[in-house]
Amino acid sequence: MARRTKIYEGKAKILYEGPEPGTIVQYFKDDATAFNAEKKDVIDGKGVLNNRLSEFFMTGLNNIGVPTHFLRRLNMREQLCRSCEIIPLEVIVRNYAAGSLSKRLGIEEGTPLPRPIVEYCYKDDKLGDPLVTEEHIAAFGWASQQDMDDIVSLALRVNDFMSGVMMAVGIRLVDFKIEIGRVYEGDFQRLVVADEISPDSCRLWDIKTGQKLDKDVFRRDLGSLTDAYAEVARRLGIMPESGNGTGPVAVN
Ligand code: UDP
Fold first, then answer.
1. What is the β-pairing status of strands 13-17 and 188-194?
2. Of 11, 51, 147, 223, which is most buried with the most CB atoms under 10 A?
3. 212 in ligand 1 pocket by Cβ < 6 Å?
4. Domain segments of the chain: what residues?
């Protein structure tokens, strides 16, 4: 059997060349990292849950007309996506103060924000993904002003969708991070939501108890990360098939 070509290996995923031109396969690993990979662990089953959860959110976004790179899930740990050129920015949307915003501005975690706030960080692990402004982005050519307008509008649509989906199952969407890719269609480029949307990249708090159901469980040693992610999947009615997906997998 021919070996697949690995395009890139990141902290939580591996990207392979896809079966057709213009496609890639995203493989979700069980590795968890935090604080710029200073804290690391392997968490059995996390990749399976994130593959399934990201499929659920991306499919929902595609269905309401928010373009994403997601095409279809292939198996427990892999999904087929359109290949795109990732803009080197982490786009963060916040509804409540938490994490780095709370630290930076001295606002207590959980304080509602007067309106959703969109922030950009420059994707560079060596620099610790520093916060940047639109001025930096335009000056260094990472994205044009038109791209940034489109990115903000995509990010706010993702926020509305995700907030509603979560609210319906008793979960508060505190904040999240997305990445945006460029897809070329002839002479035109289109921006799409890329990477993943999962509890690794969101803050999710139970509305009644405030219990954290996201990667802060790992960052802050608050218990079992897979229990937290499985609870999100259970509430959304999308528990993955049994097993942890470490056995042999077939692509197509
Ligand atoms: N986030 C992420 N990847 C990163 C940085 C942040 O997915 O490299 C997510 C994080 O899970 C949270 C949101 O973006 O949902 C805002 O994170 P914040 O800036 O507060 O950073 P942190 O406190 O996680 O360092």
1. unpaired
2. 51
3. no
4. 85-206
